[in-house]
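hey team, just a heads up i'm posting the complex here instead of the shared drive bc the drive is being weird again. everything in one block, sequence lines first with there labels, then the predicted structure for the whole assembly after. its two chains so it's a bit long, scroll down
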Amino acid sequence: MALLSTRDIHKKYDETEVLKGIDLDIEQSEVVALIGASGSGKTTFLRCINLLEEYHQGRIELEGESIGYTSNGRRRKLGERQISAQRAKIGMVFQSFNLFPHMTAEANVMLGLTKVRGMSNAEAADRARHWLDRVGLADRRRHYPYQLSGGQQQRVAIARAVAMEPRLMLFDEVTSALDPELVAEVLAVMQDLARSGMTMVVVSHEMLFVRDVATRVVFMDGGLVAQSGTPDEVLHNPQTERLRSFLGRFHGIFGPV
Amino acid sequence: MELERGTFLYEAWTARWSLLEGLMVTISSSVMTIIIGTILGFALGLVLTYGMLPFRILARLYVDIMRGIPVLVLILFTYYGLAILKVGVKPFWAGVIALSLFCISHVAENVRGAVQSIPQGQHEAGMAIGMRFFQRLRYIILPQAVRRALPPWVNTALEIVKGTTLLSVIGVVELLLANQQAIARNYMILQFYMAATIIYIIINFSIAQAAAALERRYAYLRY
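-- predicted structure starts here --
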């Protein structure tokens, strides 16, 4: 059974349908890259997975458990307690970091551990130290977000999400807001996570990262999955004109060989 | 040193107990109003932001009405209104109630503005680690919002201190009326009003300074 399976996901904003039926199965330890032009629905789809967006039709299951809505009978949204518990199993990292500005790096990581996981302060501090160490910020534990560079902030955000030991991590264009010279340090952390077997869904425009780290690339177009396969298949053998022209923007690095 | 009869200092010394009592009434009515107004206004501000629709409409109605009524009218209305309803309230308490009604509406609006100014991404980051609504409010949103609400809250507090002068119309002998009573005895109009003015400025300046110190203490929250 797939770790995450989505079936026929539809999402509308007023009259505009932005997701028109997404089917996707993701296995344990896969790194799935979602690529596509802006407006293709990749970020919206990602946000549906942990219910930051509601979807209007279809179902999402994490390890067989229906996410966000009742699985049998009438479609009904689950209660806040259940949804929160489900979200705790799915980590998410945002484009704009969204660190808590009134807390140190360490406190940012500890908050979910103590308040959601119910750990003691000592336990949570231990784990926060471990993860901040792992993302290379051992000496920045006591710093506030405004004292950190964008790349450092994003690494704290990754530590905050992974420390919860989620079953699945979602990355929403996490390097788009960074200065070019800070992108590499964040991607290195993500690559390290991927190697350790973390299951990841990554929305990214970093095509070299996608090529080197993703186990599968999904090209979305107009709210649908247009092509899906290994990085080689998708990046070097685009089957549609849309994908060819999308890849063409990356200065001829990709496209038909 | 012998004070000469007819000088301001002599007259002020003679009236010292009633002036001091007036000052205490000004301070106690201000402090009480600000405490009540802050606590209830804070709660109302949250209803205004997050309450279910019918409650939110009621809160909005309350705030708009209270901000629309002149404080003096509110004070007279509360004092005579309660009397007509056969609720026996001393002028002091009628005044505190009226000023509190006014204060609540202002604090509520301050809190709403501060809470809504916290970016949606903060909520989402809390959701993403599985925090429930009240946890997000308590640990993420309010600690940031309180700091943003502080400057407008100081404004409101100063308005309240100045607003206590209006309690004189329902016979509460606060600082202003105590001075007026002294003036009625010695006709030193300019001197006593000047003295009252300086005391009001000292009170308000102290509040503003205390708040500024608090703001500096939390300056690291700026981002």
